[in-house]
Write a structure and sequence with these properties.
The chain has 238 residues and is of the alpha/beta class. Helices cover 37% and strands 29% of the residues. It has 7 helices and 10 strands. Helix 1 packs parallel to helix 7 and helix 2 runs parallel beside helix 6. It is globular. Bound molecules: S-adenosyl-L-homocysteine (SAH).
């Protein structure tokens, strides 16, 4: 199977590139103006491609959020025609739903937006996303991955309005890319899943921007290890 991994930050992607033995590939000429970067490799029975959002030309910082994730996924799908798209990265977890630092969730059910509010019939539903996730319960069990509902928004903090929507879907993982990746994957007829490793506890005592960097290393190493396991398991069962 051909698997496209979509990631936001280079720090998150580094251990994944290392563990999967991926090699950088040239951006196709038609995508020359975009900052996204591509890697490729063969992992067991699967061809694995990786697209990383790249850096913002103004600030030099990694591009995060749904805008860059949309362009990344479009580029990856155009370039590689994947069967399965995986949004991989870090997330905020919820202590009240069993979240803890370094735990890795495998997406289940649907992936939602929590910060798009349009109170007009029809548009209200469209704004919430709710894109389908392909479940891999067997693989999840074998690798000890918790099934988690993922919810996406473009802010690191948590507003009361966002919180209401997160609660209404019982999300385990709050992050900033997955729903955008799922939407584009769906347009290209690819299946979608997400692996998200917890860097911070949303309902804990510390602000996410402090916890995030403290735990980034541990969370990304766990993520890379689980992602390698996931890809290897795909070869034998999916
Ligand atoms: N604070 C960092 C920004 C990265 S945090 C910096 O200054 O560089 C946001 C990234 O981590 C996003 O890609 C998002 O998907 C993920 N993330 C981790 N914890 C999150 C949380 N609590 N809420 C939203 N996104 C989170």
């Amino acid at each position: 199977m051909r698997v496209l991994i979509v990631m936001a930050m280079h720090a998150e992607a580094k251990p994944v590139v290392r563990e999967l033995g991926l090699k950088p590939v040239e951006t196709p000429p038609w995508a020359a103006p975009v900052p996204m970067r591509l890697w490729q490799g063969q992992v067991g029975a699967n061809e694995v491609d990786l697209v990383v959002n790249g850096q913002d030309s103004e600030t030099g910082l990694d591009l995060i959020g749904t805008q860059a994730a949309t362009a990344s996924t479009m580029l990856g799908c155009e370039a590689f025609t994947p069967d399965l798209v995986v949004s991989a990265g870090t997330c905020g977890g919820f202590a009240k739903r069993g979240g803890s630092i370094g735990k890795v969730y495998l997406a289940t059910d649907r992936v939602w937006y929590h910060d798009r509010r349009v109170p007009i019939p029809g548009f209200d539903l469209m704004a919430r996303g709710g894109y389908p996730v392909t479940d891999f319960p067997e693989i999840g069990r074998r690798l000890g991955l918790k099934p988690g509902v993922v919810s996406t928004g473009d802010s690191l903090d948590l507003s009361d309005e966002d919180s209401k929507r997160i609660e209404s879907v019982g999300a385990h993982a709050k992050e900033m890319e997955a729903a955008a990746v799922a939407w584009v994957a769906g347009l290209f007829g690819a299946r979608f899943t997400a692996l998200k490793s917890v860097t911070d506890i949303v309902d804990g005592p510390h602000p996410p921007e402090e916890e995030f960097f403290e735990n980034l290393n541990q969370a990304t190493e766990n993520l890379a290890a689980k992602l390698v396991g996931f890809i290897n398991e795909l070869g034998s069962t999916a």
